[in-house]
Amino acid sequence: MRDVAVIGIGQTKVDEHWxxxxxxxxxxxxxxxxxxxxxxxxxxxYVGNMMSGVANAQAQLGSLVADWVGQRFTDAxxxxxxxxSGAAAFRAGYLAVASGDVDVSLVVxxxxxxDSPSNEITAALATAADADWEVDQGVSFxxxxxxxxxxxxxxxxxxxxxxxxxSINAHxxxxxxxxxxxxxxxxxxxxxxxxxxxxxxxxxxxxxxxDGAAAVVLVPAERLAPSVIKILVAGSAAxxxxxxxxxxxxxxxxxxxxxxxxxxxxxxxxxxxxIDVFEYHDAFTIMAALSLEANGFAEPGKGPALAKxxxxxxxxxxxxxxxxxxxxxxxxxxxxxxxxxxEVVQQLRGEAGETQVRHPEFGMAQNIGGSGSNIVTHxxxxxx
Length: 384
Known about the structure:
- The protein contains 13 helices and eleven strands.
- It is α/β, with parallel strands linked by helices.
- The strands form three sheets. A five-stranded mixed beta sheet has the order 1-7-4-2-3, sandwiched between helices. The chain has a four-stranded mixed beta sheet with strand order 8-11-10-9, with helices on both faces. Strands 5-6 form a two-stranded antiparallel ribbon.
């Protein structure tokens, strides 16, 4: 397997893009990545997307995007794995280049959600759950997470307010990210008084949907001059768990997260202690807590303590959501994994501005599909 480097990144602001189509959003990010990488032709295109067939009445995104960005006749496919579609597409692009079959790969994550009525988007998001044993029983995606959170609070003695720091940290960082949807800080009072969505999840516990796209260009590291700073893919691993939460041995432990991260750590030759920045999948604050625990950053039941003690802030032991995370940057589901990759690259390059982590060497991005049923973990390394 060849070493693979990220040489170009591009992204759009996460927002309600009423004036841009799905292909325009994907094209804007893709062309920005290609321009930065100084490539005009790629060998393959991988598009991560969850719900274009439902929300946009458009399938065939591989052909759609490839044609739009001037790559007609190029090998191109769409990859779907619920909310982890973006990272799954990145992994496919990485493996293609690492194998030696492809020399230049373009990976794009894109989702356009705000054109559709909210009830349709809610129904589309629910397709990431078990249709027979969860959705058909009237359980929505947010209510599944609410059940997990309520059980977590019961088992470990936490209150809803104890999860506030996850959201406060994300919003504080998003202030400095021009691509984030919500660039305003929030207070503990705002968190406490926000409307309840599904007890115990309130509005500030949940990430917002949006329209957006993010992209990268991947090439063999050997193509780069020895003197150039390289952003290498040091680890790439994926794991699955049951779709239905009730089929898991312990619904409060993300076993696929643990398996995926352990494999990625082993590939990179490091441990959790070596990660300098972590872009986690904070779709809900309960997922933030569970992710920190299953990845080895906190003991079971101690995730909220890590946040309350300030250890997740820039300058803390494990900085997370440094560009706003899903909570404040926004969560255009199929694109989210690619935003995470782009943000880790920014950190490793030293391009994160006011939220720059000091001298990072290893950054991790982890994309979660469903309620922990499909996990894709990537570790990137700065090599100079």
